[in-house]
Amino acid sequence: MINSLFISGLAVSPTVASTADKGSAISTMTNMLGGLIVVLALIFVLAYIVKRLKLAPSSHNVLKTLAVMPLGQKEKVVLLEVGGQQYLLGVTAQQIQVIDKLDTPISIETESFAERLRQAKTN
């Protein structure tokens, strides 16, 4: 009788242990997946910030985009400066067309991020 209780106790014990192992495995996988999602989200947020603030290094100021004006979903007009000469370009999904080579350069005032932030705080 004692042997039968001992054997039945051993039979119950592995099921309880395997249930605990499954619970801890699921918990570990959840923590790992949560950490992965946080890291991926952080990468995308930082990439967005770098893109928006134009923190990526430029091509040694050979080509400068001075202004961009969207005209539609895939069409825009771009003011570009190459070697001191300004060009007005029409850009579509299929092609890029030079609209005009400007004889007199257009000066565009650019504000730094600090100036924009100060201006936003006062409004």
TrEMBL record:
Keywords: Bacterial flagellum, Cell membrane, Cell projection, Cilium, Flagellum, Membrane, Transmembrane, Transmembrane helix. The chain crosses the membrane at residues 29-50. Its main location: membrane. Coiled coil: none annotated. It is found in: Cell membrane; Bacterial flagellum basal body. The keyword Isomerase does not apply. It comes from the Bacteria. Belongs to the FliO/MopB family. This is Flagellar protein. It comes from Shewanella psychropiezotolerans.
